[in-house]
Amino acid sequence: MPLDGNGGYTVRHYTLDFDWKAPRTPFDARTTISATATHALSRFNLDFAGNTLRTVTVDGAPATAVRDGDELVITPDQPIPHGRTFTVQVAYTADPTQQRQRSDAIQTYGWVPTPDGTVLCLQPNGAKMVFPANDHPSLRAPVTFRITTPPGLSAVANGRLVERLGQPGGRVRWTYDSENAIAAQLLQVAIGKFTFVDSTGPRGLPVRDVVPGGLVGGTESYRALTAEHLAWLEQRLGPYPFRRYGVLVGDTDLPVALETQSLSVVPRANLLGDKVYAERDLVHELAHQWTGNSVALRRWSDLWLSEGHARFYERLYSDTHGGDSFEAAMRAAYQQHDQWRHDDGAPAEPGEQTLFKRMRYDGSALVLYALREKVGEKTFDKIERTWVTKYRGRAAGTRDFITLASAVAGQDLTPFLTPWLHGQRTPPMPGHPDWQVDPVED
């Protein structure tokens, strides 16, 4: 996705103002961006798709704005000098029906309607359908959300509820502060008839679930496991990296859950069925808060580090909580690994259309399993804790991981990890000479 993200400036802060009306109904929206020029700018781009553009200003002065595909090309009234902080305001009519399709696990992304509102599923590059952004997984900024809802509806977004203020006609304006910088793909705004369910996690961590009214009772037993999941992951990865957490129950037919930062979206069906599969989803999305959210991706080809880690810990947890054997799951993945390499690219070699295929999940978890078999469980656990500690709040990629793992292990792991991550054929599994890879079928 080479056209996503833009150079020449660094976003310091987003403010999103949404005047929500009703599902599938256009509404007034405004995005205010504070940014610093990293080059002298006579013009600059934002990622922005669809929606009806009304006005654009730079530092309060009208600016020229031209649509070029999914890019909004802005020419300010006066050039912006290098190092100058500037403010862009884009007013538009938002279209909450915008969606796009993928052929991998994501399937539908963008605005996802619910019976009385919406949730957002923006991964990988759907933020531009919601607001003008610098949309790249390595680029993050704090966000203030100001969402006005009709009477009887609630709004939720990433982070902390700052204010709930009545407006004329019984409408309510909800203000949220993301508290931490956030990548555009991990942003969440949900609107509906919600019940907010408060609890606490380890060390008093605030946990707030957001649940459609009719689903509170049916999802309670699985949602109540969050504190246990947090404690289990903290034993392996260290302290939870954000100030709060919660599960947003999606009243939708979404095929997958999503790790929106500090507020994971889990479809209702996932929380109304089998306990083993519900816990796998819950642990997977929670693990992402460390790997993929706190430690962001340097580029999309590093997605194996995010999805592979989440699947690794999901499978490891499930092994002792009623699910399949972890080793059996890894052996099954090993058997299919050459086929996945053929169909979807090696773990760190995805194509745009194969980004969220099986290789980035089970296939990438297998790379971490191979590393653990190579260096031993104790060293592997130290690599993991060092990884999420050193790069907390930063973006990191495949080379960073190999360098760090080598330093912690006291040996150069480049010759070992390179064929696992980039090769056309699956290497032998350390400690398991009897494991075999199935032949590739075209």
UniProtKB/TrEMBL annotation:
Co-factor binding comment: Binds 1 zinc ion per subunit.
Binding site for Zn(2+): 284, 288, 307
Domain Peptidase M1 membrane alanine aminopeptidase intervals: 227-420
Stored SUPFAM superfamilies: Leukotriene A4 hydrolase N-terminal domain, Metalloproteases ('zincins'), catalytic domain
GO annotations of cellular component type: cytoplasm
Reaction catalyzed: Release of an N-terminal amino acid, Xaa-|-Yaa- from a peptide, amide or arylamide. Xaa is preferably Ala, but may be most amino acids including Pro (slow action). When a terminal hydrophobic residue is followed by a prolyl residue, the two may be released as an intact Xaa-Pro dipeptide
EC numbers, comma separated: 3.4.11.2
Protease is among the record's keywords: yes
UniProt-annotated stretches for the region Disordered: 421-442
InterPro entries membership: Aminopeptidase_N-like_N_sf, M1_LTA4H, Peptidase_M1, Peptidase_M1_dom, Peptidase_M4/M1_CTD_sf
Main location: cytoplasm
Single GO biological process annotation from the record: proteolysis
Keywords: Cytoplasm, Hydrolase, Metal-binding, Metalloprotease, Protease, Zinc
Cofactor: Zn(2+)
Active site: 285 (proton acceptor), 361 (proton donor)
Protein name, as recorded: Aminopeptidase N
Gene Ontology terms, MF aspect: alanyl aminopeptidase activity; metallopeptidase activity; zinc ion binding
Coiled coil: none
Domain of life of the organism encoding this protein: Bacteria
Compartment annotation: Cytoplasm
Family to which this protein belongs: Belongs to the peptidase M1 family.
PANTHER family referenced in this protein's UniProt entry, alphabetically: LEUKOTRIENE A-4 HYDROLASE
